[in-house]
Structure to design on (714 residues):
């Protein structure tokens, strides 16, 4: 029986989910929903709390407080049902190097109690889907990083999960392998309607793949929406650079009053810089107003706001790497409490 | 069952593709057997001794004959003669000889007159084992000289002769080490195929893949235990077979004894594996397992009675040995291998091993966490 009716409509639902490691709050009262069939991104720098959030939802870490539901099951009260419903591709490459690609998928299917026949059929299909049929009987130690990642995606899908969690799936991969993983995820979303939760700190990855993105920083979700919606949340998200022939000071003053224009600046002898909403539509109107004022536009350049710009606007800084975690001999060797990769 | 078998299959395939890992569990104990068996040898031999005889009387000659008998028969000593006592003693100090035996002038006359004849034995007592051995064998050899000269009024205690009888077939020193090296194989196998793999999987992040599947704590424990006990037991049986081949021995009790040996090996492997999990399964780095392996091997193997009887240990070490599972495994294996298949003789050891294994399994299963 599903734990709540309310959560049935959502593939993932987090409600005030919190995780503390001693004095450190890695995830701080996070709430969000992921719709079924959606490719949802958790975007943030290393140490933002994405991995901890993902690990709570995949039952690897018990939440300190709050609730999480995946495929309708409570992660704390019904972890076995959650595990049956999810596929997880961790950040580290975890396929067994001493086994063949085929054996990796087949054995993993056994963990889900799949019969030999079903495992064979699924492994055959998935290995073909990720383009490794010809290398299926080779030891994984002969695979490239990209091949291992694709194999692990196949392995994570062997039991036909409802929700697939991927934690930094393209980290450390070359551009070609990265693109191959992206294509695979797009194909999965298109062909299977699988719900995918993608944790990443790559802006382009999130922007290219995700239907919606949650920007995570300092253990909190600071913004959530589609890439377009996130950009729209920032006033003056497009940047227009104009070179004009005429009275520049008068034009600057005139543009400041235009609707949708948020900021107009000009360096001495430099171009006029306009920050406006929806720059593509604002541009003809601005040109027209300048010409009506008796001046002439000699050049114009439009720069759309990137997701990175959005991130900077929301967080006040660029994506940065977390400082190296420090651990003494006992904490690092004997598993004394230390927050995971967050 | 399918889930547990999947874990076992994974481990067995991995170990099969890395035979060197298992091979070390077999090779190391066998090397120990060869090195220990040939370096300790049980009885000391060919100890270099210099004899300085300053007496030409009949009892001095009898002493010399006794020494020559020691050199020719059990080969305990290798004799060199010297006429100068000072040079002989210096040679002992310089490490040329282990001892100098000086037969002083008037030695024979003293005995002939009914007095005690004194010999000078100067040993290199820095090498205490050689010194004790030489003192012992020389005392034994020279004691017999006086037998004929005990007066009729004295009790003839030194004429009592003890005739040793062995209850079991003679067990050479190297053969007596076989139970010890089997237990060493149990330890090495448990470590390399069990807890080391477990910690390595965690270190590599592979454990995370297990934990997000519906595998239960029991599936995980049983799978790892099953594969490791199987591999360790097979490695230990190979060590047993090779050990018997090297030392030219056989299993005294035939097939029933062989079956009992395998039984003790399986119980021992399970207990030692569970114990290594209790001690090391929470380590986050396989280096911790590697660093602990040598230490644990020493503190478990040497007080196990595999090399030296535990009865001779100081009380604290004897107490430790009493609770050391390797002690009971060695004792049970010795009984079966050399005394025949007598279950009554091993029942105490087997009972201890079963109880120890059960306790360790319960604690070990608690170390298998279902979350990170």
């Amino acid at each position: 029986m599903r734990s709540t009716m309310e959560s049935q409509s959502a593939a993932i639902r987090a409600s005030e989910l919190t995780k503390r490691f001693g004095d450190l709050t890695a995830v701080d009262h996070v709430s969000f929903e992921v719709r079924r069939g959606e490719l949802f991104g958790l975007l943030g720098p290393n140490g933002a709390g994405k991995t901890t959030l993902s690990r709570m939802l995949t039952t690897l870490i018990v939440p300190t407080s709050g609730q999480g539901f995946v495929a309708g099951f409570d992660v704390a009260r019904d972890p076995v049902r959650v595990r049956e419903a999810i596929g997880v591709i961790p950040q580290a490459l975890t396929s067994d190097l001493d086994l063949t690609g085929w054996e990796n998928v087949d054995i993993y299917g056994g963990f889900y109690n799949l019969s030999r026949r079903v495992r064979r059929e699924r492994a055959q299909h998935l290995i073909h889907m990720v383009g490794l049929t010809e290398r299926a009987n080779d030891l994984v130690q002969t695979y490239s990083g990209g091949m291992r990642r694709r194999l692990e995606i196949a392995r994570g899908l062997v039991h036909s999960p409802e929700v697939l969690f991927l934690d930094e799936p393209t980290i450390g991969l070359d551009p070609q392998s990265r693109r191959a993983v992206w294509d695979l995820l797009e194909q999965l979303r298109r062909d299977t309607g699988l719900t995918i939760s993608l944790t990443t700190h790559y802006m382009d990855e999130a922007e290219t793949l995700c239907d919606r993105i949650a920007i995570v920083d300092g253990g909190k979700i600071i913004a959530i929406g589609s890439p377009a919606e996130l950009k729209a949340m920032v006033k003056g998200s497009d940047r227009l650079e104009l070179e004009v022939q005429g009275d520049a000071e008068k034009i600057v003053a005139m543009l400041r009053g235009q609707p949708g224009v948020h900021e107009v600046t000009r360096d001495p002898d430099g171009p006029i810089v306009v920050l406006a909403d929806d720059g593509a539509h604002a541009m003809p109107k601005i040109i027209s107003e300048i010409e009506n004022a008796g001046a002439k536009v000699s050049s114009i350049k439009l720069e759309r706001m990137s997701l990175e710009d959005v991130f900077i606007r929301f967080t006040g800084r660029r994506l940065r790497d977390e400082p190296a975690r420090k651990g003494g001999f006992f904490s690092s060797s004997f598993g004394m409490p230390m927050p995971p990769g967050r | 069952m399918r889930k547990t078998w999947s874990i076992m299959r994974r481990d067995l395939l991995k170990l099969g593709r890395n035979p060197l890992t298992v091979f070390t569990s077999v090779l190391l104990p066998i090397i120990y057997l060869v090195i220990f068996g040939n370096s300790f040898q049980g009885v000391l031999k060919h100890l270099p001794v210099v004899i300085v005889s300053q007496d030409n009387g009949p009892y001095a000659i009898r002493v010399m004959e006794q020494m020559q008998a020691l050199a020719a028969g059990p080969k305990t000593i290798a004799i060199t003669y010297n006429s100068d006592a000072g040079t002989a003693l210096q040679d002992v100090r310089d490490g040329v000889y282990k001892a100098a035996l000086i037969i002083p002038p008037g030695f024979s006359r003293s005995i002939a007159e009914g007095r005690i004849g004194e010999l000078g034995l100067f040993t290199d007592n820095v090498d205490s084992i050689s010194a004790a051995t030489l003192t012992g064998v020389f005392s034994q050899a020279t004691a017999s000289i006086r037998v004929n000269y005990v007066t009729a009024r004295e009790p003839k205690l030194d004429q009592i002769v003890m005739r040793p009888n062995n209850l079991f077939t003679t067990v050479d020193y190297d053969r007596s080490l076989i139970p010890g090296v089997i237990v060493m194989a149990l330890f090495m196998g448990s470590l390399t195929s069990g807890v080391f793999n477990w910690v390595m999987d965690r270190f590599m992040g592979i454990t995370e893949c297990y934990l997000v599947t519906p595998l239960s704590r029991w599936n995980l424990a049983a799978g790892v235990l099953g594969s490791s006990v199987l591999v360790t037991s097979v490695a230990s049986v190979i060590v047993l077979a090779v050990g018997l081949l090297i030392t030219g021995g056989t299993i005294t009790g035939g097939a029933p004894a062989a079956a009992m040996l395998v039984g003790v090996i399986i119980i021992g492997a399970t207990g030692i594996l569970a114990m290594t999990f209790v001690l090391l399964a929470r380590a986050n780095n396989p280096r911790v397992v590697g660093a602990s392996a040598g230490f644990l091997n020493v503190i478990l193997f040497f007080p196990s009675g595999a090399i030296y009887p535990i009865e001779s240990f100081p009380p604290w070490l004897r107490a430790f040995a009493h609770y050391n599972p390797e002690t009971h495994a060695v004792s049970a294996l010795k009984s079966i291998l050399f005394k025949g298949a007598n279950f009554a003789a091993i029942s105490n050891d087997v009972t201890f091993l079963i109880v120890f294994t059960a306790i360790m399994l319960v604690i070990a299963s608690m170390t298998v966490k279902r979350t990170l």
About this structure: Confidence is low (pLDDT under 50) at residues 147-161 of chain B. The domain at 47-159 of chain B is CATH 3.40.1710.10 (abc type-2 transporter like fold).
